[in-house]
From TrEMBL:
HAMAP family: FabZ. Its main location: cytoplasm. It catalyses: a (3R)-hydroxyacyl-[ACP] = a (2E)-enoyl-[ACP] + H2O. This is 3-hydroxyacyl-[acyl-carrier-protein] dehydratase FabZ. GO terms for cellular component: cytoplasm; membrane. It comes from Tepidicella xavieri. SUPFAM superfamilies: Thioesterase/thiol ester dehydrase-isomerase. It is found in: Cytoplasm. It is an enzyme of class 4 (lyase). The lineage of its organism: Bacteria, Pseudomonadati, Pseudomonadota, Betaproteobacteria, Burkholderiales.
Length: 146
């Protein structure tokens, strides 16, 4: 549905912080499914942890937020410019169910629950295969910067 070139046009993030490799499905205004391939070559694994590489939970939340931003932009029919930043406004009910390791493929399912007064509320679930790795409710907002 959306390859890396299209994602790069939508999200301002770049290496090592772009955490969405491909969008598999978008149901405009409702939901999105995206993936991130976890590779041993990523910089966080040098220190998290040297003897047992584990993908940090906060980066799973960030990957879900980047996926949510892509859904928000699609829902609004906008391509953000250099003056638009998409921020976290809150995270509720974050749960980590399974460690994620190099070689795993994260599939993020994000659903738009509510959009009110510029605040978007999403439900996100990240899986590796059939197993839930992470779930959370995410609140995000867009801001224009000078």
């Amino acid at each position: 549905m959306m390859d890396i070139h299209q994602i790069l046009k939508q999200l301002p993030h770049r290496y090592p912080f772009l955490l969405v490799d491909r969008v598999l499905e978008v149901d405009k205004g409702k939901s999105i499914k995206a993936l991130k391939n976890v590779s041993m070559n990523e910089p966080q694994f040098t220190g998290h942890f040297p003897h047992r590489p584990v993908f940090p939970g906060v980066l799973m939340l960030e990957a879900m937020a980047q996926t949510a931003a892509l859904l928000a932009f699609d829902t609004l029919g906008v391509t953000p410019d250099d003056k638009t930043v998409y921020y976290f406004a809150g995270i509720d009910g974050a749960r980590f169910k399974r460690p994620v390791e190099p070689g795993d493929q994260l599939v993020m399912d994000v659903t738009l629950e509510r959009m009110k007064a510029g605040i978007f509320k999403f439900k996100g679930v990240t899986r590796v295969g059939d197993e839930v790795a992470c779930e959370a409710e995410l609140m995000c907002t867009m801001r224009t910067i000078a």
